[in-house]
Amino acid sequence: MKKYLALLLAVVMVLALGACGVSTEQAAAPAAAPAESSSDSAAPAASGSGIRLFNGKIEIATPLEEAAKAYEAATGKKVEVESLGGGVDLQATLKQYYQAGNMPDIFVFEGKPDLANWTGMVVDMSDQEWAKDTDAGFVDDTGALVGFPYTTEAIGLAYNKAILEKAGVDPKSITGPESMKAAFEAIDAKKDELGLTAVIGYCANATELYWSTGQHLFGQYLDAGLARDDTTYFDMLMDGGKLDLDRFTPFAEMVGLFNQYSDPALLVSGNYDMQVSGFAGGKYAFVTQGSWIGSSLTNDYKDLYASAGNFECGYVPYAFIEGIDTILTNAPSHWAVYKDGNVAEAEEFLNWLAGPDGQKIMVEQAGCVSPFKSCTAVATDPFAGPISEFASAGKTSAWHWMGQPSNLAQDFTGAIFQDYAKGDIDTQGFIDDMVSTIPQCING
Amino acid sequence: MDENTTGRKILSLVLLILGLVLLAAALWMDITKTYLVVDLGVKVALRGLFLVLGALLILAGLYYIPTVMHHRTIINIIFLFPLLFTFAVTVIVPMFVGVFYSFTDWNGVSYTRMVGFENYAAMFKEAAFIWSLLLTVLFVVINMLLVNLVAFLLALLCTTKLKGVGFFRAAYFLPNLIGGIVLGYIWQFIFSNVLTTILNSPHSALASTNTAFIAIIVVYVWQYAGYIMLIYINGLATVPKDVLEAAQIDGANDMTTLFKIKIPMIAATFTICTFLTLTSAFKQFDVNLALTNGVGTVRNFMGQRLSNGTQMIALNIYNTAFARDMYGYAQAKAILFFIILATVSLIQVRISNKREVEM
């Protein structure tokens, strides 16, 4: 009897161990034989057939899936799109995937600090077709083209054209701090008549929007008005956290102006949804968000946007010094191809996406501004027009905040913007705190 | 053991050697990344097969070792093996790997050098970390008192003969069933939108360090008191009726009964509850993350201006790893955290055990 019991237990153990074994085998199989197992698996991510794309821009998740479907219809090859974003720590998620042996074939990264994690693990794509068609690709320190640009984004002070017209304010007249103040005052005076809650939708909530203040707005100090390859202020920042007070003081005053004219309900305790939906609904004449809100206007807040009359949008530069006349445009992040993944199919997909069929979806549905010269598709995105206006006039600057330490905004500057918005500190206090705090981060 | 010992010896040896060879082969395949695949209807990678077969053969070999003295021990080990193995893989090995990583500059993907005790030295010079540590201690002390007090009072309330006690028990317990992140966002809405409207204040309590800290405590007590309450209710139910009756006959009023009879009788429950609140408050993470994400200004601490005024130690460790890409450093902090937690828990259990009444 005992023997049978032992036998039974042994069998159970064998089965249990066998079950463990099988699952590891499945995971190991694609790495083992990418060439031969090209048709038999149901899960594309775990087999040689199909690729997985890790998208960091949740706003374009649906159009990207459309693109993947179109690609599958055209070539029969599967692309699985995994979209994360909106404050999710993408690189942390990627690292977990890496540790778990579950790396996507194409993944998103933002600038050098992110890429530093993946040194030697990404593919040089300089030989790809799309590379000849753009100069927005990401080139690393060794000269290898490792980042595929999937869109161009812009950061400027976005405005609601209909409201500005009604208020009799010409956006072209905003060329410096005085004219910006005058415009704000003019709109503020007619606030009730225009149905506005506040002149500007600016939110400094450090818990939720540290990236908007500490990265995008602060990025204006670093780059606004400069030539695309000018990194003067960024270099100063990275050299021990120095700020040029001649430039930073007027910047601080502009932020002060935003504090004064923003919606008090939004300013400190609001969130991204409130800010964007408020602008879409015509409650703010200006908003301190970049071109990515365009697709939110036409998709998520479609009804609100329609009720506000589907107004036209535009950009004015963040002209905190008289004469600043550029908005910042850049590829917000790039896609890299993982060396040990399904490289051939990933590259094939990227080439397709950069081609006319792919760009048509990316531009018309995702509202992306194409970084590819050959692209002829015209976006319906409300910000596409203004961006190309600035671009064709050569009035764009690059942005470099992506090179700043990854926790600068989250752990250091975001809270200072919030304190300033709350009124705990005045303009001088804001400047002093920035000057004393930033070096703590830069110098580790 | 009456079987032919030479036969058993050979069998055992053969099995052991074969098993070891298979294991070695699997290891070799893993290191050199030569994956052999055979097609048996489904494709099977030989590495995994070798590994499993090798392990089984070794176990069988151990079973047939011709010894009377140690046979029972060997059998015990074989039967314990699956559990021990799982425990080792999920707890013991990661712990040692973690200790190892704390001495490197690991960034989550790879490490370039060993840094010795640099990580451990650096954390005591980092004002933000010291702040988090002190804040956590304060949080733990306040919460341990508040949660237990509130929970005990609720338990007393829920053991009376009021109508609808069952409903109140469930209602108080309910917050505990909601995940911390969800709860954090619900309360964030309450603090940022509801309370600002009711109190007509320009910004929410979460925007200032002091009030945000109080907010976290409120939410935490709200979440945790119901759970602890259930344990106290359970404890109160174990107080023998005859003792209570005797007290009543002796003319003890409710207060005296509570302090002289009930509380001493359920000292063991107090131990469990303080222990639970202590460790869980120490590990506070999700509500902290969702409610403030650690944001808060501290004007001057150790000569620095801090922006992580409401950041507890667990969140500090998390951010060190994931926002700053310093996984090795975060690992060192986590080890310190572990040591503190283990020490405090041990001391606490020792002290509480002395107070317990023998039944």
Give a written overview of the molecule.
The complex is a heterodimer of chains A (444) and B (359). By secondary structure, chain A is α/β, with parallel strands linked by helices. In chain A, 47% of the residues lie in helices and 11% in strands. Chain A is built from 19 helices and 13 strands. Chain A has a 6-stranded mixed beta sheet. Chain A has a 4-stranded mixed beta sheet with strand order 8-9-7-10. A 3-stranded mixed beta sheet of chain A has the order 6-11-13. In chain A, strand 4 (138-139) and strand 5 (145-149) form a beta hairpin. In chain A, helix 8 crosses helix 18 (408-422) and helix 10 packs across helix 19. Chain A is globular and about 85 Å long. Chain B is mainly alpha-helical and 359 residues long. Chain B folds into 2 domains: 5-115, no CATH class; 121-355, Orthogonal Bundle (MetI-like fold). Chain B is 71% helix and 4% strand. Chain B has 14 helices and 4 strands. Chain B has helices spanning 5-32, 46-63, 71-101, 118-123, 127-158, 165-173, 180-199, 209-237, 241-249, 254-265, 267-282, 286-291, 313-322, 327-355; strands spanning 37-40, 42-45, 298-301, 304-306. Chain B has a two-stranded antiparallel ribbon with strand order 1-2. In chain B, strands 3-4 form a two-stranded antiparallel ribbon. Chain B is extended and about 80 Å long. Chain B starts with a helix and ends with a helix. The mean pLDDT of chain B is 87. At the A-B interface, helix 1, helix 3, helix 11, helix 18 and helix 19 of A face strand 2, helix 2, helix 7 and helix 13 of B.
